[in-house]
Predict the structure of inositol-phosphate phosphatase.
Amino acid sequence: MASSSSSSSLFVITFLLFSPLCFSRESPSQIPDGTLNLSLLWYGQFTPVQKERVRDFIESLNFDAKEGLDPKVSAWWKVVEGYQERYEVKEIYRQKSSSRTVAPKIKVKVVRSYVDEKMMFGKDLTIDNGEKLVETAVGNMSKVVPVVLLSSQVRAHHVGFCNGTCQEYGLTIKSNIKGQEKKQPYVMVSDPEVQCPGECAWPFHIANKGPHGMTYQPPSGEIGADALIIQLATGLADVATNPAITESLFKSEAPYSTDGNHTSSIYIVDPATKCFRVFGSGAFPGFTGRIRKHKPLFFSTPRNLLQPSKMADNGIDTSILRELHLFDLPLSHFLLLLFGEVSLDEFLAAAVDAAQKAGEVIRKGFYETKHVEHKGQVDLVTETDKKCEELVFNHLKQLFPNHKFIGEETTAANGVSELTDEPTWIVDPVDGTTNFVHGFPFVCVSIGLTIGKVPVVGVVFNPIMDELFTGVQGKGAFLNGKPIKVSTQSELVTALLLAEAGVKRDKATLDDATNRINSLLTKVRNVRICGSCALDLCSVACGRADIFYEIEFGGPWDVAAGVVIVREAGGLIFDPSGKDLDITSQRVAASNASLKELFVEALRLTNV
């Protein structure tokens, strides 16, 4: 990437969004001479693409590409450099025309590259062998950080990786020529595609947990190459920002033990780095769970985040520093604090987490006896509806306490809430309650997020059929992690139409609904009434049906999530009259681009 290519942006986007860093509450480490010397050990056989990506990435850390080629790897590395304490290098790093100190530059340099394709310590590594690999990478050099790269042939589950994850950094204890013990920092990286793709190859591989739809094509064409870079980037950033470079402030009290008779001298730098992807409740790859965050204005420079005195000066309650051993903060959240923006991916991740939790409640209740109440002429409400809405709202409010919330059950109890420009979560805890009561498996939880009254994130989860539909504005729509698209049907007469009769049951409304459906039956191949507006929209999004419409549905909670999913699947959402959709109007239609005008005209003839 020093020679730059279009793939560089994708690489850095990956780093910025998904590469977590652990920052100590104590003074971070310094690299006194400003150079991070790396000694690479290639253990096993690597593809040419993997080798090229590693070399390009390391060169790009200190390569300032031309303006306009953003985001850049070097810009990401400058954030890492910002976590070096400034005052201790004041005399060395002083701008010529000013006495203002600056963050020290960290020049990353490969001083040695050693290849062991025969794998002298075997393919199944133990903690002992991991220690020997570090020693081999160091050789007789001093002031180097060994980087051990393990190929796809190597199994490293017994080296100390956290639950099979693919990257680790820490310290080994090594004796020098005089017999004195010395702490040696190291980075060890395994091939994520083979070792643990569901944990470490995301976002290029479907994650074991979380938002399955959030996957990207690897820029190099090889998941193993691009995911390897993410792990390497995380390891280098951790080493550069952790006290391990000088003194281990949080080293393990006891070394690892492989059995009762043997003790290894590999130390993990601190408790958080052992499982560096675990940041809080609800965490999974790409989402850190419930972590502590503060308002952006307090963080004018990266180092302020690490200085309790600076935080206290700005009015921040520093008691959290006494409560937490570490600030477990990924780079994505640091950038969020710095620039005051939350990515839509984080919103999606939170919504998926909430939907899956609610889905467990729905799945359990689906096979049990229900206690049913009536909230209208035909709408039913169960204990499951109430429990799921409370669960979803509590989960999202803990993460986004300043957001607005609109739910079907709370609206029924307290009246309609006004939709504003503020970020607003709109939730139908059980869409298809009648289906739920009767054991018909067309049931879902629907969670949508609007910003400026525009739906931008949508999650619809049917736990009975185990189908998770997701959509994020500008990023596509997915079903269980696979991209979905609307149908290519272009003739109304061969189209499958989904329709609902609405929630009103007065004679005039029913007559209008049945007359309309009777009229449309002669213009389309067939009509289905399935009982869930949200799932009807998702059926159009994935091409199972070609058209959907409903008039007089319950409220915005029925469509807020589905609107995003249909649009991101290439479909159109509109008012049945053909005008733009208003999600509060209780009128909705959806189709592919070819069928919209044909269907609007057919509806017009039914006097909609």
